[in-house]
Write a structure and sequence with these properties.
alpha/beta, Nucleotidyltransferase, domain 5, five-stranded mixed β-sheet, 42% helix, metal-binding
Length: 216
C-alpha cells in the first residue's frame, strides 16, 4: 500500500524568498481518460507556512475529497477551474489541451499569481515556475488544486453519465476500465469520447494517429 505523504511549503518557499508571495498551485484530472474533459484547477492559498489538511486527491475517498474541496474554496485567495473537452484534446493533443486549460484557469485568478507550482506541468505562462513530479503529494497549493480538479471533473462525469446512459461514466470516470471497454463494444463511440486516443481510433476503424497541431 502506498505511503501517504504530507504536503508542505517547500516549493512555494523558494518563490517567497524571491519576493513572489502569490504562488498558484496547478493540477489536472482526467489526462489519461478515454472520454470527457481534462480538468485543470489553479489555486492561490493565503498565509505563509499555514498548515492545511489538503492532500493529493488520489489518497482520499470521494467524501473526503468533497469536504476538503469545500475548504479550499473557503480559504483560497483565488481559484479557478477550466476544462478542455474532447474536441480540443483531439485538435491539440492531450498535453496541448491540458496546457491550454491551465492557462485559461490562471488567467481567471484574481488576484493574479506571481509564481507557479505545478505537478510536472511545464507551462509557458511568463511566470517563475517549479514543476516537480508528484507535486500534488508534496505541495499544499498543488494538493488544493488537485482536490478542485478531481471533484469538479467527477461531477461533470456524473452529468455525462445521465446524458449518455450505458457507458458507466459515473463509475469509471471515462478511464479504460473493463466495463468501459464492454460498453464501447456494445454502444459504440459517444460524442464525448476522445477520437485521437488509440482505443477509440481503433473502434472507429482508424488505427493511424490523427494529425494534430501544437501541444508540445
Amino acid at each position: 500500500m502506498p505511503v501517504s505523504v504530507t504536503p508542505d511549503w517547500s516549493f512555494e518557499r523558494e518563490h517567497w524568498r524571491r519576493g513572489y508571495f502569490r504562488v498558484a498551485g496547478v493540477d489536472e484530472a482526467g489526462r489519461g481518460a478515454w472520454a470527457g474533459p481534462v480538468t485543470v484547477a489553479a489555486v492561490i492559498l493565503p498565509g505563509l507556512a499555514t498548515e492545511y489538511p489538503f492532500r493529493d486527491s488520489k489518497q482520499l475517498s470521494a467524501a473526503q475529497r468533497e469536504a476538503l474541496a469545500g475548504q479550499v474554496r473557503e480559504v483560497a485567495l483565488s481559484y479557478a477551474v477550466e476544462h478542455a473537452w474532447p474536441a480540443e484534446i483531439d485538435e491539440l493533443n492531450i498535453l496541448g489541451a491540458t496546457h491550454a486549460a491551465a492557462l485559461r484557469a490562471l488567467a481567471r485568478l484574481d488576484p493574479p499569481p506571481q509564481a507557479l507550482v505545478t505537478d510536472y506541468l511545464k507551462l509557458r505562462a511568463g511566470l517563475p515556475i517549479s514543476a516537480p513530479p508528484r507535486a500534488d503529494a508534496l505541495s499544499y497549493s498543488v494538493a488544493a488544486a488537485s482536490l478542485l480538479a478531481k471533484t469538479e471533473r467527477d461531477r461533470l462525469m456524473g452529468e455525462l453519465d445521465s446524458q449518455y446512459p450505458g457507458y458507466g461514466f459515473a463509475g469509471h470516470k471515462g478511464y479504460g476500465a473493463p466495463a468501459h471497454r464492454a460498453a464501447l463494444q456494445a454502444l459504440g463511440v459517444s460524442p464525448v469520447h476522445r477520437r485521437s486516443f488509440a482505443p477509440i481510433r481503433a473502434l472507429l476503424g482508424n488505427p493511424e494517429p490523427l494529425l494534430r497541431s501544437g501541444g508540445a
